[in-house]
Amino acid sequence: MTDPARETGDVDAADGVSADGGVADAETVDPTADEPELDRGLIEAWAAKMITNPDRAYRASFYVATIFFLVTTLFPFYWLFVVAMTPRNNLSDVGLLLPAGFNPAAFIEIFTTLPFHRYVFNSFLIATIATVAVLLVGSLAGYVFGRLRFRGRNVMLLLVLVTSFFPPAAFFIPLNRLFNTNIDVLRPLISAGSLYNTPYAIFIPLSAIFLPLSIFILMTFYSQIPDGLEDAARVEGTTRIGALFRVIVPLSAPGVATAGVLTFISVYNEYFFSSLMTDGRPGSWAPMLEGILRFQGEFAVQYNLMAAASIVAVLPVAILVVVAQEKIVSGLTTGAVKE
Amino acid sequence: MASVKLEGITKRYEDVTAVDDMNLEIRDGEFVTFVGPSGCGKSTTMETIAGLTLPTEGTIEIGGRDVTDLPPKDRGISMVFQNIALFPHMDVYDNISFGLRLRKYDQEEVDRRVAEAADIVQLEGMMDRMPKEMSGGQRQRVAIARAIVRNPGAFLMDEPLANLDAELRVHMRTQLQRLHRELDTTIIYVTHDQAQAMTMSDRIAVINGGVLQQVAPPLECYNEPKNLFVAGFIGSPAMNFIEGQVIDGGFESEYTQIDFDPETHGVTPGQEITVGVRPEDVFLEEDARKASSPTKAFDAVVDVLEPMGKEMNAYLLFDRDVEASAEGRGEGQLLINLTPDTEIQEGDDVRIVMDRENVHLFDRASGDAITHSLE
């Protein structure tokens, strides 16, 4: 069964599989094969096996889907790496799988030509502050919406959620003008008296935009904690807020982790406000995104440095997700079904 | 240790009055049980004492201090919950010491008190277990330890035994009584199970529809119920009720007649009343000497017999034509207790007498008791 005829038979069978692969096979197989079983080409035999043993088919399709998904998501990162490793002069020859040359120095160059670490730090700080603020405010709001009954609760919840339906760009012009206005009260806090070129200009609007989603996630989780536990905490000696942070929040850890990571990633990756609310200098709290764009000069675009910077910028988020992964997975699934 | 005083406590939700003008004084060290059917307001009353719910009207004093507007943590009470409510993310030690740590006791004091409380409820050596690794009874004991460790003025217990299986419940019941004796603390206990109320309490507060019906020692509630509700709720199996009216020289219903002098018992002929008699106060005619003062005999038919071992319950019908009601004991039906060796068959005709000393009369319009004895 190892003769080359098998191969042609396979090709025929694959080509005419819907028409009548059986006939195509019969013409190509050697005369010794009287048994109809043996007439079949590899693909047909494979299909027959799948029909008798569907578990194999499911497993096979699982691997196909998984590999497809992994390739489509991970290949861009690999290609970024290929581009980053390619020396600047060879960029026009950059291949699909292998770099045209070997230049790991790009990963150092991004920190020497620009203070790229400062950009990443800015972004990291802004995302961290926004996450803490969103979790804090979102916890209080989630507690109120999830655990208290009062008149107008649904209307208020809807109002909160509606803010997340607006395109963020709609807020940009008024916010930008507001942040460029000098407010005397702020002068002792911020040298210029305006919020432009400060981390606040990015984290305030982004916190507000991503807050409703967190409120919604936290609300679902907090509403599932039995009343008895909160009552017990209050009798034992906490206030309502104390019970929230000592009992309800720890028991909702997967929900808090999910809301926190989603917020962090959203703020860290955000493009629109991040690129417009500062003048782009690292000292003006310009975020990581501006850093990457800085490698695009007036006369030359240093694609290899942009690629290297992109990889470095992804690392903090990747680490965060790996660390919080277990909680997030259980958060995304249990939130939906837990009674 | 502290006394608890409720004055005019009323709790109204939008259109329901859960608790209506409740007045109650609980003495220092007393074990008082709130008992009543579900939804009667007993848990709401307890929550207002704990401070988890604020009353619409009225004041609460604990240990002579007005605590009506204080948050739960400042009331000097502790509570055991129906669903036990241990913090699932903390081990036994952290659960028990939660309140102490919040109050910033120093570590040695916390350790000493936790050890003491664990010793009382026999939880030594389980300090680092998580609640989900423990049995129902053990969790309940942790919850009790958490309640006693702070040495509070009063314990509030909201159906603490409801989620335990029958055997464990009886065991924990005696444990709680022993605990009360050892600690000598005020305990307010909520249950819908009149057996728990009867066995443990110094006094029972029977509540129905948000209104306090009777507050008295268990036996007084049993022997001298203040109204029809208490008479029917306390005691198992429940009291028999026969509806009828006062006539000259006694009481008459469709199937029975009892002789007494209406005037000495404060009723007037023509008044609609209900006679109540407990199953153990009705006897077969041949056992009439067991009654200290038998009434005259009535005819009845044995419907169903329930041998219980130490006694036998017999469901009687006053007449063969009476339809046995599917929903509880209806008019014309009577439940009596017999000794297990009584020679009797289902379907037998019997003659029965009641013990006049334990026949209760209730005014049907108001439900209030008129007398608890016809002697």
UniProtKB/TrEMBL annotation, chain A:
State if Transmembrane is listed as a keyword. Answer: yes
Region annotation (Disordered) ranges? 1-35
Q: Where is the ABC transmembrane type-1 domain?
A: 120-324
Where is the signal peptide, in residue numbers? Answer: none
Name this protein carries in UniProt: Binding-protein-dependent transporters inner membrane component
* GO cellular component terms given for this protein: plasma membrane
**Any idea which UniProt keywords this protein has?**
Cell membrane, Membrane, Transmembrane, Transmembrane helix, Transport
The record, for PANTHER family, names: INNER MEMBRANE ABC TRANSPORTER PERMEASE PROTEIN YCJP, MALTOSE TRANSPORT SYSTEM PERMEASE-RELATED
Q: Where in the cell is it found?
A: Cell membrane
Q: Where is the composition biased (Low complexity)?
A: 14-26
What transmembrane ranges does the database entry give? 60-82, 120-145, 157-179, 199-222, 243-268, 303-324
